[in-house]
Amino acid sequence: MSTTISQILIILTLAGSILCGKILVFPHDGSHWVNMNVLIQELHFRGHHVTVLRAADSWYVKEQSPYYHSITIDFSVGGDAAFFKTFVFRQLQIRREGSSFWTQLSLDMELGRKFYEMHRKICEMVIRIIEDPKLISSIREAEYDVMLTDPANGGGVVLAHYLHLPLVFNVRWTVHGEAQFAIAPSPLSYVPFPLSLLTDKMTFFERVYNMLFYHLRLFFYKRVVGPHYTALCNRYFGPDVYYFELFQAADIWLMRVDFVFEFPRPTMPNVVYMSCFQCKPPKALPDDLEDFVESSGEHGVVIVSMGTLVGQLPDYIADEMAAALAKLPQKVIWRYSGKKPSTLGNNTILRDWLPQNDLFGHPKTKVFVSHGGTNGILEAIYHGTPIVGLPVVFDQHDNLSRMKYKGVAQVVDIATINQNVFLKAMLEVLNEPSYTINMNRLSRLLRDTPVQPMDNAMFWIEFVMRHKGAAHLRTESYKMPWYVYYSVDVIAFLLLVVSGAVFLIVAVIRCLCCRACRKKRVKQD
Amino acid sequence: MSTTISQILIILTLAGSILCGKILVFPHDGSHWVNMNVLIQELHFRGHHVTVLRAADSWYVKEQSPYYHSITIDFSVGGDAAFFKTFVFRQLQIRREGSSFWTQLSLDMELGRKFYEMHRKICEMVIRIIEDPKLISSIREAEYDVMLTDPANGGGVVLAHYLHLPLVFNVRWTVHGEAQFAIAPSPLSYVPFPLSLLTDKMTFFERVYNMLFYHLRLFFYKRVVGPHYTALCNRYFGPDVYYFELFQAADIWLMRVDFVFEFPRPTMPNVVYMSCFQCKPPKALPDDLEDFVESSGEHGVVIVSMGTLVGQLPDYIADEMAAALAKLPQKVIWRYSGKKPSTLGNNTILRDWLPQNDLFGHPKTKVFVSHGGTNGILEAIYHGTPIVGLPVVFDQHDNLSRMKYKGVAQVVDIATINQNVFLKAMLEVLNEPSYTINMNRLSRLLRDTPVQPMDNAMFWIEFVMRHKGAAHLRTESYKMPWYVYYSVDVIAFLLLVVSGAVFLIVAVIRCLCCRACRKKRVKQD
């Protein structure tokens, strides 16, 4: 009997530790949502109640979901899918035509204006939420335990502070650039700034470039996004509350990378590497795909996917790619929603969507042709599939340059692609065993963790709910002025004291010497 | 049938992952061994083979153990227990008598010489190992998987490099001071240097003190221990291999603290916080102790333990402590091997040894009177027992100042102790609920980890064995000269370029102005 009681007690204790919390989510639209949705599903499965704030015209975030309750703000953020699709085409064209610096700059500035506009609208959305008395009091009354947000926009940060909620980030990029640069010391001598294509071992001029690039990006971020969030903070919290500080004060940063992917660098105690939290063992393929894969025989299959943003490609690129793929003895499965390339081989099938994780996990999969998105690369590492990279925009070049450096990828310029170059890269990765050997080594490292990444992510979200934050894991060094943080005032003071002391000693010695000389002279006289 | 086969496969896979490795241990003698021995026992229980290198006259490390095989080097390191015991007495006397700065300095220098001598002897022991052909070849032939060492001495570091073994540290202090200062960026504006008694929030003059103190300690460490290890490296690896680099290149640093105990600070990916890895739920007390504890009624018990180094105290201190403890309504259990204090109350029993963890875990335990050793404090936090601290030497002041800052301890100067002051502190911690409330909060934080600390420590030792190191988790920034690490050369170069450009522009403008003036003058003429 007493055993039964103790068993019940254990069950109750476990049930208590799996606290059923209320989580408010302020997501970032676009491909970022894909990751957030994976976390939300898992939170739902663990019994938590998730509420997602979304704009009426959200690009990715659906109103209806079995996993979350949504609050739709009657407001258009204008994710501008159309712009981003033409942006990709224009970017490729500029690179292909080797257009002038000014053409590229003009496109970059247009992109900057789009981001500027996006952040302005997100701030307006936050105002709309806070200043809708019915909405904000319903949010208050729901008594959420935590705000989960992607700090690629700052709406969730401001709203969390307004609602006095602890803050958890699902993050790789922040409004100010790469996440860790905002809170961990990042010596520019060995921490390459993202998008710089540098490694952690740089020559002198690479280090010069890294420093210039870092300051340029920081300037850009501050100009493009700073004003909106500063105005928002001024509006609700007065002039003494700085947006950048609110954001640095987040309790937990769930980072979407780790050091199998990234170069090692200083980190902070409240940064949790959840890395490939979406990776899982493969399920069986649908029958038609399984038949197709099996039909590849000993040659195996090649998986081609250019991500959600690049569903279509300019015809000339698709044709060159298809022509090269047609020459392979492998079968090819290509996720592609554009016009069927004229050079498509019999060995290639096109699909709108692929069960990517299950395909990577299939023993017949030999190579992944990728645009270089973080998720795809992490899944490829998890399953040990080497990569041929065709980076298009944003962090894709940087991601793939890391993979190339680690000996698991070949990278081809997609803008100037021709079938021979692409075929050569494909054959290199298919036939040279080192790519697979290296990728299998990375796979073993990525999988070898004391806690599964998803369990780790869930643990820390629940930790913040249990303890109402994680203040003991974060420094408040961000509140210091820069000259205090870098001890410039202390060094200046010590230099002053030392030079004062030296001056005094010299003066005394001089004075003594003068006196001695005078006495000598008096004696001589 | 197929289910059975798959079950067998799973079991075999698990068995494979629980690799039975061979671990070579180069420990640090004294209280450091207590921690190392706990790790060794666990490694033994997990099926690993542990070999410990020890000097013939080792103070703590026994030759015979059910948990490890030992290799005794026929050599006297001279742990000098006698010196350290008199050192404690002399230290207390100096503080009680308020002796001059010079008396303190003279004692400190004597201590410095002892450490200097100890490190010299450890280096001699390493030479003795390497230059004994039979011994070193037997070590080589054993094909160890990893070197586990406490870098409070550098013997294990040099030996690991000599034997080409991956390196795991069980560490809080290194030869060069606090462990993290050696590898993680440590801004002195908010990272207090250990032994400084500072917190992570400092005034200007505290920051000045922190900087001076840091450089002073670094100078001390380099003078006291640097020469021996440098000579050792020169002897075996030539002039291009620096001891400090070998030591910074360790694969994994198992830190014996965490951020419930320490202030938050930057860290590195290869630092694993195992913190209270020796803490565990309490077992039942021996009958006599249980009866004594139960007899305390509602008042509960007080546990007094001054650690392994301070088994005895000067009579005047023991008498004052005993007199104060005699006045408490609580029962007192005192770990003490000295002469029975003349003022000992009826409520107090003395014991040579205590089942400390089981006593802390007893619901009747109210307060822990501690010298401030890290292990005891962590156990007290784990079980939620507030502290009255009587720091004696080394890091004890610093440890207890952290606990005082967190509102879980009162600290009394043991050197000038009198029964009234001690009694007041005891009553304060016994009667003011905030101490227990705060300690229970810390306890909840300390226990709330995704992996048990001991499992985490074991995982990472086994990780290093599985992957022959953990190179992907450590930077090689330690190989950079300081001016490269801090980008001084890059900043100087950029300043040069900017000032060059300014100079050129000014020169051109001047030249143009001069020409314009000349033309004007010519015209006027």
Task: Please sum up the structure shown.
2 copies of one chain form a homodimer. The first copy, chain A, is of the alpha/beta class and 525 residues long.
Number of helices of chain A: 18
Q: Number of folding domains of chain A?
A: 3
Name of the level-1 CATH class of the largest domain in chain A: Alpha Beta
Question: Strands of the largest sheet of chain A, in order across it?
Answer: 3-2-1-4-5-8-9
- Say how many strands of chain A there are: 15
Features:
Rossmann fold; 525 residues; UDP_glucos_trans (chains A, B); UDP-glycosyltransferase activity (chains A, B); 15 strands; 3 domains; homodimer; 18 helices; 7-stranded parallel sheet; signal (chains A, B); disordered N terminus
Would you write up a description of this structure?
The structure is a homodimer of 525-residue chains. Chain A contains 18 helices and 15 strands. Chain A is of the alpha/beta class. The first copy, chain A, has three domains: 232 residues, Rossmann fold, CATH 3.40.50; 161 residues, Rossmann fold (3-Layer(aba) Sandwich), CATH 3.40.50.2000; 33 residues. Chain A has a seven-stranded parallel beta sheet, sandwiched between helices. Chain A has a six-stranded parallel beta sheet with strand order 12-11-10-13-14-15, with helices on both faces. Chain A has a two-stranded antiparallel ribbon with strand order 6-7. In chain A, β4, α6 and β5 form a beta-alpha-beta unit. In chain A, α4 runs parallel beside α7. At the A-B interface, α7, α16 and α18 of A face α7, α16 and α18 of B.
